[in-house]
């Protein structure tokens, strides 16, 4: 993995929001609108999260899997890459990338229990899609998440309010229901989560924010 975010493949792959919100031509031909496109990715993120809870993997694996899925659909159409199979495969791939390996057969077992009417895929389907997903990702598997920055910022700001800390981490996890990880540096997402939580808890940490070398107008508009 790259020594830091700024030297990483993740940094080099950051996109403008307008580049992410693009429906592939093949999908448009099938009648998939931009709202449909966003909604499908939202549901696939939820499927990954729910499945991960049953197979008991770390949140970081979930976040990496969702990031992979969202990266895939920047480049590939949902007509060519069936979203449910992509979501399943991305979780399998993320478990290996994050060294928390899950057997593909276990994914098949649990996904059929959770969504018996939606998922008819077998082990061979996941293994076959794995190479296609890797190619779609250009074999770039490095993902930097906001979690490390968030932990450091909370400590630096001397935030001891347990409820605010829990809210902040919850907001951070919820950011993966959107494409923010494809557009913004992880540290900025972490700052935005703290900002929102501070507003929610009516906690004034303005002085701490002012000491940061960061444009708070950018931060406050991220989520």
UniProtKB/TrEMBL annotation:
Cyclin-like domain span: 46-135
Keyword Cell cycle in annotation: yes
SUPFAM superfamilies: Cyclin-like (SSF47954)
GO biological process: cell division; regulation of transcription by RNA polymerase II
InterPro entries in alphabetical order: Cyclin-like_dom, Cyclin-like_sf, Cyclin/Ssn8, Cyclin_N
Pfam families named in the record: Cyclin_N (PF00134)
Keywords from the UniProt entry: Cell cycle, Cell division, Cyclin
SMART domains (alphabetical): CYCLIN
Highest taxon of source: Eukaryota
GO molecular function: cyclin-dependent protein serine/threonine kinase regulator activity
Family to which this protein belongs: Belongs to the cyclin family.
Name assigned to this protein: Cyclin-like domain-containing protein
């Amino acid at each position: 993995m790259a020594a830091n975010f700024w030297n990483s493949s993740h940094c080099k792959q950051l996109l403008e929001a307008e580049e992410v919100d693009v429906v592939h031509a093949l999908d448009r031909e099938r009648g998939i609108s931009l709202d449909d496109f966003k909604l499908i990715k939202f549901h696939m993120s939820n499927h990954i999260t729910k499945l991960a809870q049953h197979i008991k993997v770390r949140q970081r694996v979930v976040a990496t899997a969702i990031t992979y899925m969202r990266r895939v659909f920047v480049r590939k159409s949902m007509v060519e890459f069936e979203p449910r199979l992509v979501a399943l495969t991305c979780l399998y791939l993320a478990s290996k990338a994050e060294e928390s390996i899950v057997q593909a057969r276990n994914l098949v077992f649990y996904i059929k229990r959770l969504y018996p009417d939606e998922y008819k895929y077998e082990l061979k389907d996941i293994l076959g899609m794995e190479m296609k997903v890797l190619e779609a990702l250009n074999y770039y598997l490095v993902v930097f998440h906001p979690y490390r920055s968030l932990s450091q910022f909370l400590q630096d700001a001397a935030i001891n309010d347990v409820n605010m800390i829990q809210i902040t981490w919850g907001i951070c996890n919820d950011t993966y229901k959107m494409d923010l990880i494809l557009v913004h540096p992880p540290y900025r997402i972490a700052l935005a989560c703290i900002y929102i939580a501070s507003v929610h808890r009516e906690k004034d940490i303005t002085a701490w924010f002012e000491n940061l070398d960061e444009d708070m107008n950018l931060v406050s508009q991220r989520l």
